[in-house]
Amino acid sequence: MARVLGAPVALGLWSLCWSLAIATPLPPTSAHGNVAEGETKPDPDVTGTHYWRLDTSRDGWHSWPIAHQWPQGPSAVDAAFSWEEKLYLVQGTQVYVFLTKGGYTLVSGYPKRLEKEVGTPHGIILDSVDAAFICPGSSRLHIMAGRRLWWLDLKSGAQATWTELPWPHEKVDGALCMEKSLGPNSCSANGPGLYLIHGPNLYCYSDVEKLNAAKALPQPQNVTSLLGCTH
């Protein structure tokens, strides 16, 4: 049977593996989205439409359609984050909000435009975002689009002020801030860590301040070897 991955760690793990699926097209899949054995040819039709789930009965990580877990949500997702027992899925200019207690229930009135939920950067209209994250215990949402990074306070809602921050990345495909380390090979073996993904590469920072102060990219790791997303 599949292992149920609870927030925030569960959301984080599937977010990281799912982000890899966006950057690197998944191979052809079976009826349940599991990668066909021995196949390596990319299938662009599933790129961005699947997430990864740890399935102990099937020996590892397997891809599943996003609609399988969130049938009321978007068919593909650009960014995902959780806050105050809610899961936010962003596609283009739209945001879907699900209650996480007792299963995923779409909040009434959603989807709605992202700017109606969290505002927008001054003088900028965002057509889409590349990634987003919130560190545990914080209400600061960080949003990345292209080479730009902003933070805003979710407690302010649509009236939030977006503050741009420096960082060394030109683009990322996924992001996650966690209380616990992802393992001995991560940059933060005994504490919290911030993980950014671009293509098959995972970049690790001990915190947001280290990301903002960085003048060059750290040595990348391969996300598949770090998390075991090999199926």
Keywords:
231 residues, five-stranded antiparallel beta sheet, four-stranded antiparallel beta sheet, 15% helix
Please describe what this structure looks like.
The protein is of the alpha+beta class and 231 residues long. Helices cover 15% and strands 30% of the residues. The protein contains 5 helices and 15 strands. It has helices at residues 9-23, 66-69, 114-118, 208-213, 223-227; strands spanning 50-55, 60-65, 79-83, 86-91, 94-99, 105-106, 112-113, 131-134, 140-145, 148-153, 163-165, 174-178, 193-198, 201-205, 221-222. The strands form 4 sheets. Strands 3, 4, 5, 6 and 7 form a 5-stranded antiparallel beta sheet that branches. A 4-stranded antiparallel beta sheet has the order 8-9-10-11, with no helix packed on it. A hairpin with a 2-residue loop joins strand 3 (79-83) and strand 4. The longest helix has 15 residues, at 9-23. It is globular, with a radius of gyration of 17 Å. The protein starts with 8 loop residues before the first helix and ends with a helix. The relative contact order is 0.14. The model is unreliable at 1-47 (pLDDT under 50).
